[in-house]
Amino acid sequence: MESIFRPLVLFSIILTIVFWLTPYFDYVWLSDVEIELLDQGGLGAVFESSDLDYWGTLFTWVLLSFGLYFYVRLAKPAFVAFYILNFVLTPFYGIQVLTGYEMLMSSLLGLIDGIILAMLFFTSVGARFAKNSIQDAQN
């Protein structure tokens, strides 16, 4: 299990970054009408979104994922807590409009996160976090 955990986390990091950046590249292949529709994302949101929220969430996910990659002890509970927090807050983000590619990436990320969580709690990977970490990951 440990042999697939780190590549899976690394793939998750890359896919998360690509997913977060797609709104900045959608205009390349979408029509003006489609872009206008995508701009409606967040309509009716309870929480107003800001660039700090957007990029802060990405930074936090990537930071926690690197913590998982290097088996940092604090990363496991922090990843779980941040995942639960985002899950609970999701209904308050308003209407989300995604392209087919974005939906595919979102679905893949959900599956990967589920696999990572399962590995953290139900395989030998979780025990690696009990040891202290970066030095152990290099061995």
How does this model look, in words?
The protein has 139 residues and is mainly α. The protein has one domain (1-138). 67% of the residues lie in helices and 0% in strands. The chain is built from seven helices and no strands. The chain has helices at 2-21, 32-38, 51-69, 75-89, 100-122, 125-128, 134-138. Helix 3 (51-69) packs antiparallel against helix 4 (75-89). The longest helix has 23 residues, at 100-122. The radius of gyration is 17 Å and the shape is elongated. The relative contact order is 0.18.
Discrete helix count: 7
Low-confidence stretches: none
User: Helical amount among residues, as a percent range?
Assistant: 55-70%
What number of domains? 1
The total strand number stands at 0
User: How does the overall form come out from the CA principal axes?
Assistant: elongated
Rg calculated over all Cα atoms: 17 Å
* Helix/sheet category: mainly alpha
DSSP strand content: under 5%
Summarize the biggest pleated sheet.
none
Kindly, what is the distance between the CA atoms of the first and last residues, rounded to a whole number of angstroms?
Answer: 16 Å
**Helix/strand order, N-terminal first:** HHHHHHH
Average pLDDT taken over every residue? 88
In short, what is this structure?
Helices cover 67% and strands 0% of the residues.
Give the helices and strands, then pairings.
Layout: H1 2-21, H2 32-38, H3 51-69, H4 75-89, H5 100-122, H6 125-128, H7 134-138
Helix pairs in contact: 1-3, 1-5, 3-4
